[in-house]
Design a protein that fits this description.
Two copies of one chain form a homodimer. Helix content of chain A is 63%, strand content 6%. In chain A, the strands form two sheets. A three-stranded mixed β-sheet of chain A has the order 1-2-3. In chain A, strands 4-5-6 form a three-stranded mixed β-sheet. The longest helix of chain A is centred in the last third of the chain and has 33 residues. In chain A, helix 10 links the parallel strand 1 and strand 2. The first copy, chain A, is built from 21 helices and six strands. At the A-B interface, helix 3, helix 11, helix 13, helix 14 and helix 15 of A face helix 3, helix 11, helix 13, helix 14 and helix 15 of B.
Amino acid sequence: MTSIEDDPLQGQRVMAADLRDAWPVLDPEARVEGFRYLTTADAEEFFHELQALDRAQLLLNLPAVEQRWWLRGLAPDDVADLLQATPLEERGKLLALLDDATRKEIGALLAYSEDEAGGLMNPRYARLRADASVDEAISYLRRQTRERVESIYYAYVLDEQQKLVGVVSFRQLMMARGDARVREVMVTDLVTVQDEMDQEAVARVFAQHNLMCVPVLDADGRMKGIVTADDIVDVVREEATEDIQKIGGSAALDAPYLQVGFRDMIRKRGGWLVVLFVGEMLTASAMANYQKEIEATALLALFVPLILSVGGNSGSQASTLVVRAIALGEVRLRDWWRVLGREALMGLALGTLLGGIGFLRVIAWQHLFHNVDDPHLGYYGEHYLLVGATVTVSVMCVAVWGTLSGALLPFVLKLMRLDPATASAPLVATLVDVTGLVIYFTAASLILL
Amino acid sequence: MTSIEDDPLQGQRVMAADLRDAWPVLDPEARVEGFRYLTTADAEEFFHELQALDRAQLLLNLPAVEQRWWLRGLAPDDVADLLQATPLEERGKLLALLDDATRKEIGALLAYSEDEAGGLMNPRYARLRADASVDEAISYLRRQTRERVESIYYAYVLDEQQKLVGVVSFRQLMMARGDARVREVMVTDLVTVQDEMDQEAVARVFAQHNLMCVPVLDADGRMKGIVTADDIVDVVREEATEDIQKIGGSAALDAPYLQVGFRDMIRKRGGWLVVLFVGEMLTASAMANYQKEIEATALLALFVPLILSVGGNSGSQASTLVVRAIALGEVRLRDWWRVLGREALMGLALGTLLGGIGFLRVIAWQHLFHNVDDPHLGYYGEHYLLVGATVTVSVMCVAVWGTLSGALLPFVLKLMRLDPATASAPLVATLVDVTGLVIYFTAASLILL
């Protein structure tokens, strides 16, 4: 009786899920068509779940009457995001659909960039006066629920200059005596953020204090709006995505993977690949300097990829760990010497470990793959111990160098006010490749030649 | 008059911030000492901001009376996290400090693993009956605020079997007629999560629906607790940190960078480095197969690092983009063919771009660095066009191969129920290095030799 076929809603449910699945590959007309096929409730949920860019594109393809209806159902910060994702020439048309008060609010929000606290906040919050009584406050808040205030669960107490003096939760009001003053109930030890604070820093404040909501103040302490934890969930995901994409060696995609156009994708990935390729060309020049040694002892060339990979791997480990520690606020610029000291020891320990394995490998191959004509001459010739020593010393030096370079680069980028995540695994690998070659051939010429 | 020195609180503020800064390098005794030096309000804030592990260590170093006081101030889910970070032999002692009801709640939470919905949820939430009147519901909720319910802003409507039938916000109750039934006001179209759902999936639900709070149900639909957005902010940060550390080629650190002990750090980083080093040793064997060709034409060795880096870079780009897209739910297992088709084209386009630059480089060096004895013989000898062709063809093939391998590996790992983020930049680079050598020397033997 309760099987799937009997559920009258099931058909519609599948529709909404299907539309969500197919969305990335649908053209604008097909999106509108699919959207119109949803029930009103499904359409509303679907519309509110769309990313700003998709929402803007869908809206622009609807008739003006529907545009007005959908726009008015959005919170001001969502409208501002939507307008920022709308081509400039279409913005005026959409703004004209709003009432004056909302248009003014949204104008103020558009003055902020998307990735700062002011661009995240909702300007509609519940406000109270400090000298109101608790009973007055409760009935005032009940009235505010009828207007579109994002949340009445925290009410912000402002003075005449709109400066924030305290916060009181609805729950605290309900537990207090009705004739107490708001001033006596409110909390004054507040966590706040500045309107121009970067969204990554705002996310750190939320994470550190486990907040559901934070008030946003301008430079003069006047309250401008509130940022809520649900928006911060999105911020943290976006910032992590950007960092991961940069660490992988491409520019941030700024859109879901399957929705980035081919040409855009080429631009975002090709740029870094070309820079890395041109940089890596230095290895061909470096190798050319050792061409005579390679001609004399082709054996030398065998270990080049192995030695270089040690630098790349230890370097990308160190750089990603440091990049993430900086992003989380676990490590600050002034901690650089502590990190560097740690990583120097780490590089030495890891290099010794790998160098030892490298030495064992040379010995093992020497003994496993005898030269059948002359048992004294094995795989790596009569000087196999020197070959082993060259590999071991090179691996150790390259590991220390790779680890130190990888750990230092994010700090250098941060000092230059660039994003530390630009210290991508491929960039670090490329940077240490040339030095790796110089280290290896220098060790070889000292030990082996 | 309002300078920093005049603020009587400033001294204490600096103390709390100082303690937070110094925390990672303090030993347990110094931590307790610093903690006791804080004002009660500061200590309370400080204690609530600590991570579970630090909180457990601090608590174990306090006398039993204080332990009881601090434990009782924590929400049940926080106590459960704290106990999970406490050595097994100490848990009983701490559990004994709690009252029976709380101990039972916490026992139920400890049955869940930390990283699933049941391990994140708070079992204290506001509940209502569907046939209560709105007025009864409001006064019942006001009474519940006196007990320690995490949030009364959403009240969950349960039937006799504890099954969730609807949700009503406090705001909706206040806007409704007092004699209406809760049933008429509540929302029944609910977003819920299962108690055994992975926390990463829970985070995706929050992000997709922009939620502040979600109810957790067991397999039979019985309500077990609520998860709030502030906890999800932490989850998203932790999961991204794990992914980033894996992408960089180390095991997840599971603790702030500066707090990981040296030996632990060696283990977490050395493990992967050894695996990669042993894998990369195959390049030495592969190169040995071409030793004769290198002896004959040492020129061949010059381009080895350049060609291999193309595979590593294009591969780590593709793998990190796909890993992140899978983690965000933008790409699912069954999308693999779409991703692979896209990446094949992308690899071809990027390979053509880089191959073209490589060809230009050979021509340019040939003409810039003449052989002074014989102007027909340049840097790369008389067959420089063939050298250029070899480099170009190899770069193109290696780029396509690297991109495809990088894009495919996360899907293979996911299919094997491993974490796709294990497809780290260094792992992909190592995997494509051997193939890169084979491609290059095959191209050389076909074109040049």
